[in-house]
Write a structure and sequence with these properties.
By secondary structure, the protein is mainly beta. The protein is about 5% helix and about 45% strand. The protein has 2 helices and 16 strands. Strand 4 and strand 5 form a beta hairpin. The longest helix has 9 residues. The protein starts with 18 loop residues before the first strand and ends in a 6-residue tail after the last strand.
């Protein structure tokens, strides 16, 4: 049988840096079993994407202003996110993802401008974008996985001399589905639903084991609804909404990105009102306005 000539590699889109990273041997047998549950004939983003480190969710740097910041904090702070994914080659459509969300009290010179909170969010997931379907007049997508989120902190002594537990974490299995209109339509709707892994209650608030935030779903709920619209290849709006299990604990996040004139970057406007912006403040209402530079908007992940 004649040998098959290798296909030329598709160049990356302008402004998106794609870094090769070999992670052979990273996945354990458990990941193999997970991949067998979700067989797939082709890679999620195209065969040329496997074995590469690619953008995932939002990656940005911005200055935010929280109108409801407590007295011990500066209303202004620098927030930066970065997020990437890696698609395995031996199990197509199986991805490893990582996102990080940090808050820097840069303008609080009285306290030496500390980093007040960082949330770490690794995950593993199956992801597939389907082709255009005439029946539903659009292109659906599906993602299912398991994610961990924590702030990497523990018991400490606050400025008043009290022992407090600053640890926050939770684990979730989730399903994320979306639909984009037309063959190349600019409109997208999506729904993410999760089931939290149950943890034991803590008898001692300072104990290392047990649930650090048993009421978190009272404020974040069990899922998120997404509504997005791209006005052009260089501009788009994405709205996220969720509802906590308690009354009046709703959350909305709006992200608008537009052409910055800088290759590979966008200007970004963000408005956040609600709960769960960070793990340490999951039960405190935040109303924040932000302006900054985005390197990858979340709208482009759908």
């Amino acid at each position: 049988m004649p040998s098959r000539k290798p296909q030329p590699e598709t160049p990356p889109p302008p402004g998106k840096a794609i870094i090769r990273l070999r992670l052979w041997g990273l996945l354990s047998h458990g990941l193999l079993y997970l991949g067998l549950l979700f067989p797939a004939p082709a890679a999620a983003n195209g065969p040329q994407d496997c074995g590469r480190l690619l953008p995932y969710k939002s990656s940005f740097v911005q200055v935010g202003y929280d109108t409801l910041a407590p007295p011990e904090r500066h209303h202004r702070e620098i927030i930066f996110d970065f997020s990437f994914q890696y698609e395995t080659c031996f199990l197509p459509m199986l991805h490893i993802g990582y996102s990080q969300h940090s808050f820097w009290q840069f303008f609080d010179e009285k306290r030496s401008s500390p980093f007040r909170e960082t949330n770490y969010n690794p995950e593993i997931f199956y992801r597939r974008r389907f082709g255009y379907s005439e029946r539903i007049k659009g292109r659906p997508g599906l993602q299912a996985g398991f994610e961990h989120e924590s702030n990497g902190r523990g018991p400490t002594v606050d400025e008043y001399g009290n022992n407090v537990n600053m640890s926050r974490s939770w684990d979730r299995g989730y399903v994320w589905a979306w639909w984009k209109n037309g063959r190349e339509g600019p409109f997208v709707i999506g729904l993410k639903w999760w089931q939290r892994k149950k943890e034991q209650d803590k008898r001692d608030p300072l104990a290392p084991l047990g649930d650090d935030n048993p009421q978190i779903e009272d404020f974040t709920g069990k899922g998120e609804f997404y509504l997005g619209f791209s006005t052009s290849e260089r501009a788009g709006l994405l709205i996220m909404m969720r509802k906590g299990r308690r009354d009046h604990h709703g959350t909305v996040r709006m992200e608008y990105i537009f052409n910055s004139g800088i290759e590979g970057g966008y200007m970004q406007l963000i408005y956040f009102s609600g709960y769960g912006e960070s793990l340490i403040d999951y039960d405190r209402r935040v109303e924040r306005y932000g302006l900054g530079m985005s390197f990858h908007g979340m709208l482009s992940m759908f």
